[in-house]
Design goal:
By secondary structure, this protein is mainly α. The chain has one domain: Glycerol uptake facilitator protein, CATH 1.20.1080.10. Helix content is 72%, strand content 0%. Helix 3 runs antiparallel to helix 4 and helix 7 packs antiparallel against helix 9. The longest helix has 24 residues. The two termini are 31 Å apart. 50% of the residues are buried.
Amino acid sequence: MKKNVAEFIGTFWLVLGGCGSAVLAAGFPEMGIGLVGVSLAFGLTVLTIAYSMGHISGAHLNPAVTIGLWAGGRISGKTILPYIISQILGGIAGAAVLYVLATGNGSDIGSFAANGYGEHSPGGYSLLAAVVCEFVMTFMFLIIILGVTDEKAPKGFAGAAIGLALTLIHLISIPVTNTSVNPARSISQAIFVGDWAISQLWLFILIPIIGAIAAGLTYKKLQGE
């Protein structure tokens, strides 16, 4: 139960901090933080939770990470469902708080930092581009996670490396899909947007999971296990 609560809190913080920066601060008149600021915000949420909650649950904060770690032989299958449920609920709770904040001045939520492709991609990128982007970004994210948490890796730097990796991923891919690599993050925002965000949600659930599994299996091969 402690691990599940930690995953709930961690994913809550990731959605509130990352998506909150995109919705509330990215385009704030004259002082907005822009894409670089949003990218850094997502990285900081992971970095802060990794060091504060990592010793409790491992700080997955992401169903794709949980599944990728299972595919890489790091966790048992019985961990998957409780973690994923906790992550999705935490993400929805974070989005609910963000909804209250975003509408607090009478504004409409707009796209609410939801993920999308085609006309709903920030840069108008195609379905194919979105699939390739989410697969590659999630694959590399899991390779990095598996590598820096390996028992042979230098100790004490995993949280920083993972946070910086997520920052870099956002710097690359926000224009393409608004960056998911995390089904819980995508689900939480799509629920409040509805309509197109729900109809495109399949990509941001399926592709990150496939990318994570591919990374887990690849890293096992690299280790020769």
